[in-house]
Amino acid sequence: MKQIITLVLAGIILIALLVASIFIVDITTVEGNEIGVKETWDGGVISDPLQPKTYVLFPGFTQKVFKYDMSSQVFVMNDQPDATYGEGRRRDSYLVQSSEGQDMRISLNIRWRRDPAFVVDMHKTVRGNVEEKILRPELMRVVKDKATTRTALDAYSGEGLVKLQSDISSALMAADSDLRKRGVIVENFVIEHIGLDPAYVEQIKARQVAVQERLRAIEETRAAEAKADRAKAEAQAAYEKAVVDAKRDKEVGILGAQKLAEQQVLDAQAAAKRVEFAAEADKNRNVLAAQGEQEAALLRAQAIEALGKAEAEATRLKLSAYSAQGSEAFVRIEVSKSMAEAFKNIDGYLPQDMTVNLLSDSFLRAVEAVVGGKSAPAANH
What we know:
- The protein is of the alpha+beta class.
- Helix content is 61%, strand content 15%.
- The model has no long low-confidence stretch (mean pLDDT 82).
């Protein structure tokens, strides 16, 4: 029995401890897109924010973690009945006056997020009500400052609307803006629509139609002028091309004529050179021929002279042989041979009173006179 009682008491104590731990220990998780701020039981705020993580708080009843969404959020100021894509009031477009007093109802859309470095300060000042306490007042101030300096026509559409949106975006996103100083980072700003008085819109549309017609007329005029300029340019180009072609043809013709004339001069010079060379060649050939003939004649003369000298020398030697001792008999013999040869066929041709002996005697005496140096006596007929 005592054991049963002990087990029951142990179970009761265990259950009591479990129940107490539930109340004493608190487990909380800061998600990946969140940052937590922890407060203690005495109302103090821990200066270091809690990064995404699961935390065990002990004792849990003395601590509390506040989680803030750090992802991009959308805040709108428009008149959409079901603005489910962003935070904002229903029918909340911002009404301002243009520089000439026209009402402009501006529908706005802004994307923003918290700066992690300001989460603790924002927790102490505005907690989760950033849109109403920080974002809306500053957005309205900037939009009013930028929109009221423009005319409704300038801000309504076109480049004027783009410029107004750009100016508001630059003011909201600036690093030294009031929003950044309070921990709000603006990522994007859009003017969804600007509503004007319908009558004024009709005037704007009529003015825009007139402007468009004027612009169309200007464009048509420009197009006609461009067409005329193009035709003029094409004509000028054709003219310049014709001039260039004519100049080219002229220069080509001049160059061709110069080339032909120079070629003719060169041909004439070449022909003259050829004639000159031919004449020089003929001259040289004639000179060489004359020199050859002169040298040949000289050689012939020298040969004749040498031959004559040789013949004379031979005759002299022959005659000298006749004048040597004992040559008389040799001469007489030779003469007799010659005489016999000469007289052998003259029979029957002698004059009536002429005999062979007489001829021989006369001939011998003449030879004797030549050989002996004596004059021949006159023959007796």
